[in-house]
Amino acid sequence: MTAAPLAVTVAPARPADRAAVGRIAQRTGVFSAEEVQTALELFDGYLADAQRSGYNFLGCYAASDGRLLGFACWGPTSLSKGAADLYWLATDPDAQGQGVGTALFRAVEAAVRAAGRWLIMIWTSSSPLYAPARALYQRLGCALAMQLTDFYDRGDDLCAYVRRL
């Protein structure tokens, strides 16, 4: 059962969010320790110089207390004039099903548009663990453009979703 949407704000992530980004990525139960470490490395690049790193982080904050409920990381796709990649979208398990992922995705769409781009690429896994993420992307208007068999591992396909803006 889905809970009522939370009152949230979405804004560029702050340096003080680093520990919460790692905690949320770990708590989802979807990402490996290596993937959690990668999220933190990308966050460090964003903090050091978002323009140079190519990574942009957005945080979704509870309106009631400013607590980080989720984050998204996106960036322009190299060698493309119009595409952007959505690298991460993660919601704290305590806030899942309450509109956080939707708020983050809509904010990514707005940021991609503001950057003059018109296409969002999302690369994700066919693993059952990722079924909620795939369902979210489909509900938000993303189309499965390609599925590459056994990409991540045997039986774990790459699912490439596209959102045209």
What's the total count of β strands? 7
Count of DSSP-assigned helices: 4
CATH class label = Alpha Beta
Spatial strand order of the main sheet: 1-2-3-4-5-7-6
- The CATH superfamily appears as Gcn5-related N-acetyltransferase (GNAT)
Mean pLDDT across all amino acids? 96
Q: Sheet bearing the most strands, described?
A: 7 strands, mixed
CATH architecture: 3-Layer(aba) Sandwich
Rg calculated over all Cα atoms? 15 Å
Summarize the structure in words.
Strand 6 (143-153) and strand 7 form a beta hairpin. Helix 1 (18-27) crosses helix 2 (33-53). A seven-stranded mixed sheet has the order 1-2-3-4-5-7-6, sandwiched between helices. The mean pLDDT is 96. The longest helix has 21 residues, at 33-53. It is globular. Helix content is 33%, strand content 35%. The chain has helices spanning 18-27, 33-53, 100-114, 131-139, and strands at residues 8-12, 56-62, 68-76, 83-91, 119-125, 143-153, 156-164. It has one domain: Gcn5-related N-acetyltransferase (GNAT) (Aminopeptidase, 3-Layer(aba) Sandwich), CATH 3.40.630.30. It is an alpha+beta fold.
Topology:
Elements (H helix, E strand, L loop, with lengths): L7 E5 L5 H10 L5 H21 L2 E7 L5 E9 L6 E9 L8 H15 L4 E7 L5 H9 L3 E11 L2 E9 L1
Parallel strand pairs: 4-5
Antiparallel strand pairs: 1-2, 2-3, 3-4, 5-7, 6-7
Helix pairs in contact: 1-2
